Amino acid sequence: MTEAAILELAEVTAGYGAITVLDSLSLRLGRSEVLAILGANGSGKSTVLKTAIGLTRMMAGRLSFAGQDVARLPAHRRAAMGIGYVPQDRNVFADLTVIDNLKMGGFLRPAAFADEVGSVFALFPRLGERRRERAGNLSGGERRMLAIGLTLLLAPKLLLLDEPSSDLAPAMVDQVFGAIREIHRTLGIPILLVEQNVDKALGLADRVCVLVRGREALDAPAGAIDPARLHALFLEGSVRTS
Prior knowledge:
By secondary structure, this protein is α/β, with parallel strands linked by helices. It has a single domain (about 5-240), classed as Rossmann fold. It is built from nine helices and ten strands. Strands 6-7-8-3-9-10 form a six-stranded mixed sheet, with helices on both faces. A four-stranded antiparallel sheet has the order 2-1-4-5, covered by helices on one side. Strand 9 (about 205-210) and strand 10 (about 215-220) form a beta hairpin. The N and C termini lie far apart (about 45 Å).
């Protein structure tokens, strides 16, 4: 029996202004899955996440979250419903301290804040050590941890992660991916992950979707991916057509 979907895109065409990026794309994420979206630069990976949260213009297709049509809802309504989005950049309040950033995530549920911020510090001990530090003074990896922690305090039903390993040192990449794995294992939150680090993505994901110029070129279990086929699709996606 097929698992119920937490997120489903059906024949979605979307982009920015008059520019089309996603071209009749269909994908579904089960309620217990981690799905990694891979592809060459410019293939539309991040646009999938922005479309899911409501930051792009949908031109056609259907988009549902937890069984509800959300295609016409603004981003803040989708976030309130439980879609947690961690963008690659500009994902924390640089002038606020770590603890004040986390309070921004927990402001809708103040009674639960003390317990849940403790869980964030258990997941990311470095944030606990630097709780009084301005977020703008953190390293790139620490800011990525803080952005994930802030989003967790919103009690998401779905986590959208855009390039969590981007610009991080290898040791920090290991820490961040270890935390993502723990989030999924202990909280059971389904995750839609966009990532350029193919090895890390394959090690974390249950399933992989490969995009080529805004279209699905491959959808398969992560453990069944043929490296040669994946390499060929990346090459195909990197070729520009006039």
